[in-house]
Structures are given as structure tokens and as C-alpha cells.
Amino acid sequence: MRKISALIFFFFLSNLLIPLEPQPAAAKAFKMPPLKQQPDQEEILIIETPQPVDSTRIREELKPYPSVKLRHVFTKVLYGYSIKGKQSEITEFLAAHPKSTKLTTTKAQTYTIKRDSTIPFVGAEKTRGYFDQNGNRLTGKGVKVGIIDTGMDLHHRDLERNFKGGRDVVDGDKEPMETLPGNGYSTIHGTHVAGIIAANGTLQGMAPNADLYIYRALGPGGRGTTDQVLAAIEAAVKDKVDIINLSLGSEVNGPDLPLSKALDKVADKGILPVVASGNSGPGDWTIGTPATSAKSLAVGASTPPTDVPYLRIGKEKIRLLSIDKTEQWKEIRYTDVYDGGLGSPVELKGSFGKIALIQRGKYTFEEKIENAEKAGAKGVLLYNNTKGLFAAMVSTDKDIPAAVISLEEGKKLLNTRSRVSITLNNEQDRLAPFSSKGPVTVNWMIKPDVTAPGVDINSTIPDGYMSLQGTSMAAPHVSGAAAILKQAHPGWKGPQLKAALMLSAKEISDGNGIPYKVYEQGAGRIQVDKALQLETFVYPASISMGGLQDQKKKYLERKITIQNQGKEPKTYSLHPAELKDDLRWELPMSFELKPGEEKSVTVRAIIKKFPDKHVLWEGKLLLDEGTNEYTLPYLIAAGTPDYPRIMGFAAVPGDEPDTLRYEAYLPGGAEEFALALFDQETLQLLAILDQKQQAAGMIGNQVDLPSSIKGKTFYAVAFAKAKGDEDYQENLIEWYR
């Protein structure tokens, strides 16, 4: 079976220049230059208000500002509305409404991943042997699951019986159909997600009898805006769904953005929001909103039992991340790697019978692989042109295997004269290399909360089936698991569902048997059959202690609530899983809870020795009850934060000719923010475009591009400097106008 990778990534800007994927710029040495001022631009904003607003009154108030139009009004998850117009007129309008809070929106875009049948692996098949209060087997029957995505194939034979309602926010109707060929860039993502949750035909989903409510918030090409997603969330709340699946996200790691705040309010209503953590791994701090919502259930991706391709050079091995719609890798003994340059036909002439190593850049992924296939190569390895991994996708099936590796791994292969081999390792319960990691900036929260299978996941697509991979595929496993639990326990609300899945999760480890960090895997991989039988609940089920930035305070403490939902008294005690030299815990004495009783206790972490540099202390507290042991992940930060000063930088053509539009997120603000252009080859400074002192949060502007760079390929580099530390992100841009 061929494989495709897919994730809807809720990203900043659409209408991409080529190829515009943000990467950390650690591989080059850019220096922050002095910069200049910003011109006007058109933008979309969300306005929060203290009370619900009347749309008629808002339209009347907008009349003096001709370019500014009302888009959506929010009454359920936020009080407020969204508008679109020229920045100058929006600024004037906001000045007349000083009680409003401006929140800049982001746009969505399609990224990539793969899949296989994982229902038995997470325990869902075992739950079919249990029955609900009415004598029905546990299949999600009667549970309302909302899916906010690209829509769904409403006529798919495995899904049409489960479709019970929803809304198309993009087209403004009640038929949330996927974007079909001929109507723009077609989509398949929402249908794939829906099949994992509730397919009921040729394929069986996690909860095959769940009621599906579909909300199309992302249109052609998987693009949408924050206010469209907020409008979809509002519609789902009005429809009284039990669970909302959001397999969308961004590269903005912050707890204070509109979607994260909205999902916290959704959870307060008893609904469980399940959110994909993102595909920006393997680095720390890569989780993005809305998975940064404190009360949502954020999901990372782990591997089901699967054959993983590795390239071996002597005793070293490189894990290969296969590319969508390319052939499966097979084992190969002792073959040559050929330097295919950038992947032109001329550069690939000598690759016959070899694995072509091709650098990212200049040509599309499709062209590179097709050129290698025509040259007779037996496989393709695409290596990055900046630090780290990247997502690659092609639109048509290829007859040779292809995979992505990092810049560092590509350079290693270029410098080796040894022959290489391809081996397949059968693995399970490993963290997927693309799975985004925490912690959350600003508040040091543990995210993701759990993991679920997200590699090689087979599911429905319009008119058929396909294998995809990504945290987009992991999240619906959890939504389906929650539907099974909700059918078995109708009284359980979002907090109980979240706690049950976390407390019953299985810790996962790397190939050396070392457990992944708590901000990489959360509580572990879900086991829905274990969650079904849970009688002890802890709120919250992970303990984010926060951070200490100086030595004025020597301890951090949090309250947790332990609840006995069993039929017999239970005795509980807490202790750390392991002792740390610089950390000491003060924990309550053991105590007994009668059936239905709960108790709030304080856990205190005392810092014995303050670190010289920033430290993340992570581990687990163990809650013992008889022969049962429950794991509570904890995280403590000490010292000056080391998270990036800038995140999620993206740039696209502006609304006017010869302009560039950009956005970025500054978690802690910046004493100086700057945007500059550098030549791709020489890294010479070409132009200084913008400069400002900036508070924490979103930043964006539209700037003029100098005529001197026409026809050039250049780096747009955004800098942020605070407290002596400077970070930057870059976009490689090809001028095509």
C-alpha cells in the first residue's frame, strides 16, 4: 500500500511564495541590523468584548470605516466578533472602543504524514466485550463527536450513516462537504479523521456507532482563519456535542491566543476538546496553539506496530521519514549513495541503481523524485537546506521510495565513501520523530497530555481509502476512545474523560528503553480498555508546577484532587518515582477515601539548590492505592527561560504589488524586533524592512520590497532580542512576480 502523510497545520499566512516553510536559522550566522518603519496593511482581527454584542449595532458602528467588514459574531466560547479591513481604519475603530482587546488571527495550511489498523492496539476492540447501561456494546452509540476540519465526504459508504449534522463555515451552509476537485485545491483530511473516529463499513473506526457532527472551517487546500475555526467551535457548542476533535494547529507556542482561550471555555461547559499537538518535532517548545489550551486534551503521535526504514552506514543508522505517495522501502544490502545535487536531470544522470541524495531547494519535491525515477535511481533521500527535519509531499504516486532526512544527516552521507544498507525494524510505542513537544511557553505547562498511534494510519478519504501519518491521525484515536468511555459512563464530562485517558495511559520509551520526557509524551499512549475500568480519578492528572526565575522563592506548590469512584473504601499515598539531588518533595500523609468521596491535597516541590542556568526538572509522582499505581507527570522550571524569543515566523506576498506580509509570535516580547532580507548564496544584507520594540504576543505587518531584489532568491529573517538573548527564524523566498 502506498503511504501519504497529512496534517492540517493551522499556520499564519496563505498564497505562499516558494517554498515558505519556517525553520530555525541555527545553520547560518545572521546578525540583527538597524531597521525602519511599517506601512499600512489589510488584516483580520478578533475583538473581545466584556459582554455579548449585537451584530446590527456593530455594522452600524463600522459604517464610518468603509474598508472594515464584520465577519463573525461570537457568543459561546468568546464574547466578541471578527472584522477585516485596512489597518489604518481598524486602528481608528479600536481607538473609539478602548475596552476592546485586539487579537490577531492566523490562517491555516496543509502539511503532511502516514497509517494502518490500530484499533486493537489501543484497546478499543477489547471494549466491544463490555456493555452500557442499556445493554448495548461499547461502540460510541449515542455520543456526539464534533470534527472541525476540512469537511467530510458526506456520501462515503463507511461514513454516511454516522453523519448527523454540522455546518460549513467556509461556504455558509449546512452541507460540510470536503473541497472537491474543480472547486479549488481539493481536500481529504477531514474524511480521514472522521474514519478513524467512526468509520462503519469496510473499515471500522474507534467508535463506529458515534454520531458525527462535521464543521468545515478549512476550505480549499486546507486553509482557514482563526475566526472561522472559532465560528465552528461556537456551532459545535450550540449543537451540544460531547467531544470536539481539532486536527489542526500552528507553530505558535503560547497559552494566550484566541483558540487556546476558547477551548478552555469549551472545557468549562463539560465538552472535551481533543487537539493534535502538531508536526514540528523533534525539538522542544514546538507544540502550537490550540494544543496549548490548558483544559484541552493535547495528543502527540506514537508508532503502532510497524516496519520502520533505517539507513545504515557502518555501525550508525539514520531513521527515514517516508514521503507521501511514494513506494514502500524494502531492505537493501550494500548499495551506493549518489550526490544528486538539487535534483535536476543533468545532476542525476549517474544515479542509476543507486540511492539519490538530493538537497532541498530550487525544484519541487515532485520534480526531484520524478527526475530520479527517470534516471533509474532505486530510491531518493531529500535532505534539508536548514537545520532539522521538514515535511515533504507529492501529488501523484511514485514508483520508487523516497524519504526525508535532516541537513546534518545529509552532510554526513555526502562525506562518506562507504556503501549503505536499508533495513526495516519492527517497532511500536516509539514517539514519532515529527510529533511536536512541549512545554508551553510562559506558563511551563506539560503538553502533550497523551500520545496515540499517528504513523501509517489507514482510513477513509473521498471515494476510497488511504494511509496517512501525523498527530492529525493520533487525535481522532483519542476522540474515538473518549466516545467509548462516554457511552459507558454517560455522567462523565470532559474532565473525567481526560483524567481517565491520562491515568490509564502506558509510558513509552525510546529504542534504548529510556522513557520519553513528560513534555514529549505526556502521560503516555492511551489504553481505552484500562480507562474503562478506572475507579480512581485525579484532577489535574499531570502537575505543571510552573517556574522560578530567581532565588527569592524556594518552593512551588499545587493542589490536586483525588476522587474515589469505586464501591469500596480506598487508601492512597504519594511518593516521587525517583529522587533528584536539587529537589525535595513535601507530600501528604496517606489517607482513606470512602466511595464517592474526594480530597484536595497540596504537593510542594522545594528547590534545595538553585541552578546556575535554566533547568527543566521533570518526572513522575506515583499515587499508590492497594495493588494499583497511578502515574502523575510533573514539570518544574528554574532559571531564565530558554524557549525561543520568536516562533511561527511566516511571510507571503502582500496585498499590494511588490510587498511582503509577515507574522510571528513573541512569547515574552522583544526589546527589539527586526525584519531583514539576505542573499541566499552570500548571506549579504539586501534590505532592512521593519523594526520596533514589541510586547509579548502576535506581531505582523506589510512592508515594501525594494526593486533591487527582483529575480533573486533570498532569506527573509525575523529577529527578536530580549535580556541579552537574540533568536531568529528565516523563510527562504523566491521572487516570482
From TrEMBL:
Range of residues in the leader sequence: 1-19
Q: Which Pfam families match?
A: PA, Peptidase_S8
GO biological process: one example:
proteolysis
Q: Which residues form the Peptidase S8/S53 domain?
A: 140-508
A molecular-function term among this protein's GO annotations: serine-type endopeptidase activity
Domain PA residues, every copy: 353-413
List the keywords (alphabetical): Cell wall, Hydrolase, Protease, Secreted, Serine protease, Signal
Which residues are listed as membrane-spanning? none
Catalytic residues of the enzyme: 149, 189, 472
Recorded family membership = Belongs to the peptidase S8 family.
Protein name in the entry:
S8 family serine peptidase
